[in-house]
């Protein structure tokens, strides 16, 4: 296959860049930055892209960076990496562990975005040094604020489309808690849409000894929690997947005081836009009805925030990338099921009118993973994304992520 020959030609220099990639990864891991504050990371990215010949655009959507490399006629491929970290106190004991803080908040790359940035910079460098082996336009996009769900949208609203040529395909990857060296793909829905809802319900304050004088919002909130669960069990078809979680309830200040309000923090995960809207409407209906049943002092308030789109991989694009992965990785490429985590990557190709696919790479030491499988302790022994002990092994994670981006891009760009 032409793209396998091109991939071998481009990737023959991988050993030469391995040293600076590993150093860069450790540096990024030690210096994580929260969403919308990725200033240092963005500078490092822009400097390296510019040094390898890319036309660089900075501060797109705040701290986003876009590098464009035009190399003759052919397709236009967008590769995306996210840059932001999380407000998590690292507990890995690594020599390059983060001790960074944002004010009083600890900061950690607990989701592997430092891996994503490093791999994309490596792929961009290799492709820039091997322009005789491919033709077309490569777009390396480094996105801020994935964790808050508004980074991709911010880049779009800041005029991203005006900077780019028409995009034929958009590609992205994420490090998963599976054995390092593995690459996994899935056609169709792979990640869920997510909606967080802050619901404030109102009671009437009173003394704890005189409940007849008040309307207790704690009891009202408890009734809402129970009733919300029936939406999934009784209003959603068994073939549709919905997760509805009440993650927090805030009410009251003292045992003998009936508060005048309660706040519920609700999270919803769905894969289908129609189901999503149906369940959101049902949540509003149930909460409003329970407030009326409790003689609430006024109508409840609803605030939607941290909204993520579903990630639905184009089947044709996924098949093309999957074939390229099988040709290069062999048995290290395989399928993976849909997950209930969420991403905002799809906001980019949707706005640009491009089909897309999103895949996973492994980051867990294979020996440790197999030991956990054999002992039946995967859930206990393997740290997952957002854990304070999530720490992808440097190799073969970086090599695999770099290879995957190059191989996928060349499925469109190979001459």
TrEMBL record:
Residues annotated as binding Mn(2+): 111, 113, 147, 174
SUPFAM superfamilies in the cross-refs: Bacterial exopeptidase dimerisation domain (SSF55031), Zn-dependent exopeptidases (SSF53187)
Entry-linked Pfam families: M20_dimer, Peptidase_M20
Keywords: Hydrolase, Manganese, Metal-binding
InterPro entries, alphabetized: Amidohydrolase (IPR017439), Bact_exopeptidase_dim_dom (IPR036264), Peptidase_M20 (IPR002933), Peptidase_M20_dimer (IPR011650)
Domain of life according to the entry: Bacteria
GO molecular function, one term: hydrolase activity
Cofactor notes: The Mn(2+) ion enhances activity.
Entry cofactors: Mn(2+)
Domain called Peptidase M20 dimerisation: residue spans: 196-291
Xref: PANTHER family: METALLOPEPTIDASE, PUTATIVE (AFU_ORTHOLOGUE AFUA_6G09600)-RELATED (PTHR11014:SF63), PEPTIDASE M20 FAMILY MEMBER (PTHR11014)
Protein known as: Amidohydrolase
Organism: Mycolicibacterium neoaurum VKM Ac-1815D
